[in-house]
Design goal:
Elements: H1 8-24, H2 31-41, H3 50-66, H4 76-83, H5 93-109, H6 114-125, H7 131-146, H8 152-164, H9 170-186, H10 194-198, H11 206-222, H12 224-237, H13 242-256, H14 260-266, H15 270-279, H16 286-302, H17 304-318, H18 322-333, H19 344-355, H20 363-379, H21 388-397, E1 406-411, E2 414-419, H22 422-438, H23 445-455, H24 460-476, H25 478-482, H26 485-496, H27 506-526, H28 536-547, H29 549-558, H30 577-582
Antiparallel strand pairs: 1-2
Helix pairs in contact: 1-3, 3-5, 5-7, 6-7, 7-9, 8-9, 9-11, 11-12, 11-13, 12-13, 13-16, 15-16, 16-17, 16-18, 17-18, 17-19, 18-20, 20-22, 22-24, 24-27, 26-27, 27-29
Length: about 575
């Protein structure tokens, strides 16, 4: 009866307890008991609550394992409804693996060709299915093949034939490619011809073109001795497809690096792969360089004592081109994670050399160094907390507008201003926002506020971010903020009172409205500060807002949104427009 309750906490506990009970007391798993479970649980499975769905699937898997005959109670409609869950792009991670395990258990209980059922579901779904759902069906199909080893070669051959068949619709070709890759992850498919997969690199359908490298990478991970030399040879010879081929290499490295057995298989190719990646560090395409950096980062995590010093030496002496230095910095960023890792001790000793690239002459190098800094602050602040005082001046320097990076370009009869330093400043302000969350005690708050004030007067994206900083500072440092209130309020007033140009397009008008709402949310947050109603600048500004109907109409939209992400904990209810106005009279 607890399964019928609407109390979610009770439902979660009931599902866990039931799974544990029937695992311990198998005799309790009678047909009547299972019928009651199915009646009350199947209709609860939904993408809207994936945690509950995962627990139900785990319970059903346990039942199918202990009492296989009870699965006869599942009719065709119930099975189709369950499989329909895979058509939600939200189904990923734990719930997806729980579904695959349940499907394996179900296939052992029922005389049903579930591979064909999945294929038909993909076919019937048509073109409207989200591309993540194809990965869901592929993973579950591969799970079914895993429990029927004898059908693996024929299934792989049939899938490859579907991929090659020009008369097959794109949905089934995409499903076949991804399923072939999932099967190849864990078994040797050296009997297939990779030219058939490489042919998909030239597909006119973008989803198939994107799935082909994933398939090739997974298949290569299943037998690296056979496939990796072929992939490396293709990278060297097919410059026009180097991005897609490097994506295949990335998938292989990612798959193999998750286990000791996989690392052992990859080890003979490490030096060749490493050298090949460095040859592509200076690729003209940023996407290619990012894939190269990710591969270098993953290889560094496998053997940090050998690989990290090489990156450090290349940065100091070998990487003369700016884009090569940027690629190396990005590779280091891919070694940062929020979990303890063997590379951490080495990173703590060497991170200073990489962050010193904030002094590089190239703006691309400085931008990726800021991205590295932000990643470290988010995930491993202990790596830099001792160096923070030497890093902060370099960070603050990058928040400044550099007029030498602003240029005018002509587009027909019009002139357009381009700010090449904008992305650099955005990255710097993002680091500042992260500092508020992770290293608050290490900041000189008045110095910090100086740069926040400058950001409120900067570009649209930076204004939006600094508004969030001010809202956060209302909670953290209201006293310090109150001393700068006049400057901040005057800047917010300037934003709110900005008039749209006569020739503004719809997108520009929407951005301006959103910016005004952001400034008003910031203003409402300032009204919550102690004795804020005594500040003449803020009082006057609130009166001005309430006197203008268009601005006053925006105020209701700001309620409940005037806190930074993760801060809506109910400690301080936002002031209403009426309360704010009342405080000004």
């Amino acid at each position: 009866s607890f399964l019928r309750q609407t109390n979610r906490s009770l439902l979660l506990v009931t599902l866990c307890a039931t799974t544990a009970m029937i695992s311990k007391y198998r005799s309790a798993c009678t047909k009547e008991f299972v019928k009651e479970i199915l009646t009350n649980s199947l209709n609860v499975i939904s993408p809207s609550d994936l945690h509950v769905s995962q627990l139900i699937l785990e319970l059903l898997t346990t039942i199918a394992t202990i009492n296989p005959g009870s699965m006869q109670l599942l009719d065709q409609a119930a099975i189709e409804n369950l499989i329909a869950l895979l058509q939600s792009p939200l189904v990923q991670g734990g719930v997806l693996y729980a579904f695959a395990s349940f499907l394996q258990a179900l296939a052992k209980c029922l005389n049903t060709d579930f591979l064909e059922v999945l294929r038909q579901s993909v076919s019937n779904a048509g073109t409207g299915m989200h591309k993540q759902c194809y990965h869901n069906f592929a993973l579950c199909s591969a799970a079914l093949v895993a429990i029927q080893e004898s059908i693996a070669p024929k299934t792989a051959t049939d899938l490859l034939a579907n991929v090659k068949n020009p008369r097959m619709n794109d949905q089934l070709r995409l499903y076949s490619l991804l399923t072939l890759g999932e099967i190849g992850k864990t078994r040797d498919l050296s009997f297939i011809n990779i030219d058939d997969i490489l042919e998909c690199f030239r597909s006119k359908t973008e989803d198939i073109k994107a799935a082909a490298p994933v398939c090739l990478g997974f298949v290569s991970a299943g037998n690296p001795n056979h496939f990796l030399p072929l992939v490396l040879s293709q990278i060297r010879s097919r410059s026009s497809q180097e991005y897609l081929l490097l994506c295949s290499l990335r998938e292989s490295i990612s798959t193999l690096s998750t286990s000791e057995a996989g690392v052992a298989k990859l080890q003979p190719f490490m030096d060749d792969v490493w050298d090949l990646l460095f040859k592509h560090c200076e690729s003209k395409e940023e996407g290619t360089r990012n894939v190269v950096a990710e591969c270098l980062g993953k290889l560094t995590l496998i053997n940090p004592t050998q690989r990290l010093p090489i990156l450090q030496d290349q940065l100091k002496s070998g990487a003369s081109a700016a884009i090569a230095r940027a690629t190396i910095i990005t590779a280091v960023r891919f070694t940062i994670s929020d979990k303890p890792n063997s590379v951490d001790a080495l990173l703590k000793a060497t991170i200073g050399d990489f962050l010193n690239m904030l002094q590089d002459t190239d703006i691309v190098v400085r931008r990726v160094t800021l991205l590295l800094l932000n990643s470290v602050l988010h995930n491993k602040r202990s790596l830099i907390v001792e160096r923070l005082q030497s890093i902060l001046p370099l960070l603050y320097e990058e928040t400044k507008i550099r007029h030498e990076l602003i240029r005018e370009v002509e587009m027909g009869p019009f002139k357009h201003t381009v700010d090449d330093g904008l992305d650099l400043r955005k990255a710097a302000f993002e680091c500042m926002y992260t500092l508020l969350e992770t290293c608050l005690g290490k900041l000189n708050i008045f110095e910090f506020l100086t740069y926040v004030e400058a950001g409120i007067q900067d570009h649209y994206d930076i204004k939006m971010l600094t508004h969030l900083m001010v809202i956060r500072l209302v909670e953290l440092y209201p006293t310090a903020l109150s001393q700068r209130l006049a400057i901040i309020v005057d800047t917010l007033r300037s934003t709110v009172m900005t008039k749209a140009k006569n020739n503004s397009v719809k997108q520009e008008l929407e951005k301006l409205d959103e910016l005004k709402r952001s400034a008003l949310r910031c203003t409402m947050a300032l009204c919550r500060m102690p004795e804020s109603d005594k500040n003449p600048h803020l009082r006057e500004f609130i009166m001005t807002v309430n006197a203008k109907e268009d601005l006053k109409a925006m105020l209701p939209d700001t309620q409940g949104k005037d806190q930074a992400p993760g801060e809506r904990n109910g400690k301080h209810a936002p002031s209403s427009a009426a309360a704010a106005a009342k405080g000004t009279r």
